[in-house]
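Justification of computing resources. Each target in the renewal requires a structure prediction run like the one illustrated here; the chain below, 286 residues long, is used simply to show the kind of job we budget for.
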Amino acid sequence: MTAQPIIIVGMHRSGTSMLAQLLADAGLFLGWRVQPGHQEAYFFQKLNDWVLREASATWDRPAGMRTLLEDDKARAYIVDYLITTMNSPRITEFMGPKRYAQSRSLNTYTAAWGWKDPRSTLTLDLWRTVFPQSKILHVTRHGLDVARSLQVRYGKSIDDYIDRYEQRKSLYRLIARRSNLSTSMRVADLSAGLELWDHYVTEAKQSVIDYGECAMEFRYEDFLADPDPIMRQLLEFCGIPVAASVSWRDRIDADRAFAYRKDPELVEFARHHEATLQRHGYDVTD
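Resulting structure tokens:
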């Protein structure tokens, strides 16, 4: 039987990366070439980035996607390109030479497969047209932990970026600087990061409703607290058999849940954004 893709969505990379690694270890094929540490297939990353560019959007400023999805002509063109790509030799970049030689198409591939990319949260409506029987896994994490993680990542990126500039500064008297900052300045602001989290979770939750039985949603914090039953549900959802004796508890760091609680300023920030957090199932006391 032909397998349909499992699309893993969720804005926070650390939680979804851990989940993706566990699923990959259990037998879910997530790509021949993936981003180290994140299990994100470069093939689908690039396709999602292309879709966002067509909408004059980026992962951190996604507003243009709604216009694209509501424009019948633009939507049809995008879907046609994605379907054409899925039926071309270019999928070797995702499948790898051996799998491509055996199946020649993802439409005839029989093993459990899928991909993980936060951008897919924004493009799911298109991918469902390409793969009508696809399934989605949506993992939520507390908005303050996500916003703070993005803020920290921005801080490290800007420091490294400026350090590289200082090291090569003399070169720019002779050649133009061509690189650009690879992270988002928007998430330098904690409020903006939380706003972005709100957008992603809202989009993903609507997709969960639209997908119905073909969707599974759970909280990262619940998974950390008791991983075994959720992991078994996930594997059944993905069509991957697992031995009854297998446990994942020794691979989970439960201390990663609600990390923001360790910072009184973040706790106070959470109180001021109570409505946003509660809208997605998180109380200030969480």
